Amino acid sequence: MKRGVFALLLVLLVPRPVHAAAPYFQFAPDYRQPFITATATSVGQVFLPLNDHISGFDMWLSDGGTPADVQFDVLSPSGSTLSTRAVTVGAIPDSDSGTVYHVNLPSQLAVAASGTYEIRVTSSAPTLRLYWAANNSLLPLNAPPPPLFSGGTARVDGTDTGNSFLYALYETSETTPPALSNVTVRQETPTRSVMSFNASEPTGAVRELHRPVAEPVHVMCSRAPELQRFAGRRTGDDLSVHAHGAR
Asked: Is the dihedral of CA 20, 21, 26, 30 positive or negative?
């Protein structure tokens, strides 16, 4: 077999259970401002799950130091209610940055990674504040724009704003492997090839199985589910790449 020409075999491992030790997605820039929910009739966070399951989420909030009853509803792309969690938020003093508040859903939801969902926040507390920040971002030269709502959007009284409430998404268990599509391989040099593909969820790690080679294989992985990118450099002829869901 010619140098640099090798077979690529994609093998997806059945993911092991994951636990909500850390979010798989988070929007929480340092610069943020409080928004008083009582100033609006309807308040929600629109988002793309970027995954196939959601078990809970974080939001940054305060309540003026007095307990507040809050209801969180997860709405489907069609606007129907998928899950509801009513909580009493303890006394959280106001601050410049807000306090992370975690909400566990009654059960993990199966969602579409590219679907547009909403976390609706309802409370009669006059001092409840959610923290938000501008959701714009700088793109490299000639880079394509990110998918709409990929960074989240604050929806106030039915209008999508230029801000996003601070939030994070969690997945606690996983029983199916990521689904790959649009797999392409491009050989850049006699000893280097780049493989790109779309994944149905973030892939948190990769593994490689191959015969001994004269030089190591270097694997790079992006956590963005829209494009997972791997690059391999070697002088051997066999390479297997294994991907599993984010932990």
From this structure: positive
